[in-house]
Here is the input.
Amino acid sequence: MLAFVTGATGFVGSHVARALMTAGADLRLLVRPKSNTQNLEQLKADQVVGDLCDPDSLERGVSGCDVVFHVAADYRLWVPDPEPMFRANVEGTRALLEAARKHNVRRVVYTSSVATMGFTGNGSPANEDSPVSLEQMIGPYKRSKFQAEQVALAAARCGMEVVIVNPTTPVGEADIRPTPTGRIVVDFLKKKFPAYVDTGLNLVDVKQCAVGHVQALEKGRRGERYILGGENLTLKEILDKLAALTGLPSPRLRVPYAVALATGVADEIWTGRMRGREPRATIDAVRMGRKKMFVSSAKAERELGWDIVPVEAALARAVDWFRQHGYV
Here is the structure.
């Protein structure tokens, strides 16, 4: 089986590529010309130079492949101009699916996000059937992923073998950027967490998340979404786990929502608009944090054979990796 993988230079994509290699697949990877290829070390794979905004490179990538794993995405919670994010996440997905259809790819696994789910304000776990709309999506990242997911669902309704997976918040090693989740770990290690807000996330071991992608290929139903989640934890519980792993103190001061929002406004104006750098705290991130992003992975457990594993091992690997690679 020849698998074409987008996003393999990134965090989740590199683990998906390794999971596929372990399962015996041959790999072809889409690699942007200026990508950091550190995560491709020890991967035996063909490479196609291009990106999601280059349809010709997508054609070259999928040609002759049996399956496609579309993991790549522009994952940032703040951008000075959202248009390139929509072009990559939405139109890139559309172009890749069209290339897969044209070249008779057997099946596509599309990596969406838990961000597309319908979360409530009371902390009760969301699932694949929770009501949601585009109007509920906060910020360009969530809106672009929601729209891209709709493109994938539409392709499935038209007969394409497309399965959607919705990872929660992956954590583990090889988060080279790092992602917003990885920055929580790095900031904690740098003692930049003097306080916390009352929010919550579902953390999933990135290695287990990669296994779930392979399970979706083998067992997922066309046009279905599958949440790949782990433990539902408040931010305070995550920081306490990091404290237990590292011996560093966990913050005790909880910041009210209004104060956090004011901090996001100030940081976005000063760091983002005036200095042209990505803010540590953004308005959209604070607004998203008002709802605990707790989910149920029961559907994936039932249909894919998904296992929920404790997150401590993944947090420990993340801590070790960030320390060993000079992030702290």
